[in-house]
Design brief:
Chain lengths: ~325, ~325
């Protein structure tokens, strides 16, 4: 090593200032990495699938003051007045079933969404392989992606499972008729998504608490919508709660779960449910996945004093490698 | 809509209990998404490239008590006694230059590392296209990846730029000879990485403060190693500091920057530098990228009271879409 050292020091050129300009030998790649991310949960493989981004105006948030909101958003470097908000879906391969949880927005909410099929394909799966689709609730950004651009079923082999309460609310003629004018489009989106599967007989309802496939159980989580449902996934003792729309504005609602959003059908119940689930997740240290948490939207909830919480996303980890407990 | 509603409700089947068991029509995909992630910084395209994971024992950390450590790790859901720690590199396409910052560990630190070339290729670039490699410091997990498995230069077209102080320390015969036995392998790794490029004349040194290519400036950040250098990247008014090894244990060192790690050559200076840079980054709200922050390792530093900080990773965002300020 000693003789090498001497040679190295003598031959090291001294570099001063910019290199002679040469043009980069490659144009910008311009492509983002595909929008999927995997974790192993016991024997189950979970794939987070990115549908895209929606920008939600901060004025949609209730139970807060502008100065509090600005402070909470700034500390998480989230833009205002429109918060970047992910739309995620989750694919679960249990070995026996290939289950999709929610289907994204398709093109119902603009060009930044509708990438579930692209990203699912990039991740190695095809919509025709899915045998079960379970729906957290029937808002357009969760069920829009059930249909293709011609309005035909995108999941020809799948049973589409939705809670009885959710089914009854959104597909009720009476409720739709009684809804205020601005809510009508949401009823139409829900109808449109369900219609082709009702025709084929693939649309099925379940009661809360049902085990939908072995290892995936429906958990009542009402407020955001009447039949809003979380899904408790468990394999080999490892647990993940896919909690749907418990949080829309992560920068705000973990710190202050009292803050609700305009889309919550029952604001008070949504707050009660959010607080109960956050408390339970923080206490149990269960993994959580959320449809509007920053992609991949998988992580843990930490209690931060009484009634306040923080979101801790999982660290990027290759598959088949020891986890952080190693 | 009304007549459709009635039909839908009548035809909705009621689902009870598990579906009849069918085997999933697809085996588990078993692959993780490729380890790259892009952001646009003004006119520059920045690609974070994942080299892999190293597990660092918590006993490597100094200036702390076990009970404090356990609490800090637990609140970030980081495993103990071995902390999952990313090794990242960054590729910058300035339009004029294609610049790689650090080259990963190759196979110097086990099978979980050495993926810079794979992931760079997946991201759309080839090592032969790179015209400039800049090195934050000459530890093996940053320079090991300069060579291929036969020990030949992996970057045949690139100037390899390293600070004069770093060059002089690691390639000094005297310093290597005076180093304690356990430090010798680090000197050998640095020598081995530099040797083929010294032979070809591609190895070049610079003085602190030098502009290496337009938009990328060397910033003195000593302590971790004598010539440890951060890189200030700026395009069209947008700023990113690639800070190298200012942080190894994110769960611990943002909250308590006084905690140092065994690898810091000058523990006191490393702490002084870490505190100064964190303070500056929190105040300026500049983007930061770090070689051992959870991949992609890009985000912001938030001040949390006097002398404490928190890490806020960027949200996954497609390229060519409005950022969070929209």
């Amino acid at each position: 090593m000693r003789s090498i050292s001497r040679i190295l020091l003598l031959t090291a050129a001294f570099f001063l200032g910019p290199l002679v300009a040469v043009h980069a030998q490659a144009p910008p790649a311009l492509t983002q990495v595909p929008g999927y991310y995997r974790i192993q949960l016991g024997q189950f493989e979970i794939t987070a699938i990115y549908d895209g981004t929606i920008y939600l105006k901060t004025k949609l948030l209730h139970n807060t003051k502008p100065e509090d909101l600005d402070r909470l958003l700034a500390r998480m470097f989230v833009g205002t007045p429109a918060m970047q908000t992910a739309v995620n879906a989750y694919l679960i391969n249990t070995g026996e079933h290939l289950v999709l949880v929610d289907a994204g927005a398709a093109k119902l909410f603009g060009p930044n969404l509708g990438h579930v099929v692209d990203n699912m394909t990039a991740s190695g799966y095809d919509p025709a392989q899915i045998d079960t689709v379970i729906i957290t609730h029937m808002h357009g950004d969760h069920v829009g992606g059930l249909r293709d651009q011609e309005g035909k079923p995108l999941f020809p082999q799948a049973a589409i499972l939705v809670s009885q309460a959710e089914n009854d609310y959104w597909l009720s003629e009476k409720t739709a008729a009684a809804a205020p004018e601005e809510a009508r489009p949401f009823f139409k989106m829900a109808h449109d998504a369900a219609a082709p599967y009702l025709t084929t007989g693939q649309w099925k309802t379940f009661v809360e608490g049902a085990v939908l496939v072995p290892g995936i159980k429906a958990v009542k989580a009402p407020g955001h919508t009447p039949g809003h449902t979380a899904y408790a996934v468990e394999s080999a003792g490892q647990k993940l709660l896919i909690w749907g729309d418990i949080v829309h504005a992560h920068a705000v609602q973990f710190a202050k779960p009292d803050i609700s959003i305009d889309f919550d059908t029952d604001q008070k119940q949504a707050i009660v449910t959010r607080k109960a689930i956050m408390q339970e997740m923080a206490a149990s240290q269960s993994l959580v996945a959320g449809m509007h948490l920053p992609f991949p939207g998988i992580g843990h909830v930490r209690a931060e004093g009484k009634g306040h919480y923080a979101w801790v996303p999982v660290e990027f980890t290759p598959l088949g490698q020891a986890d952080t407990k190693k």
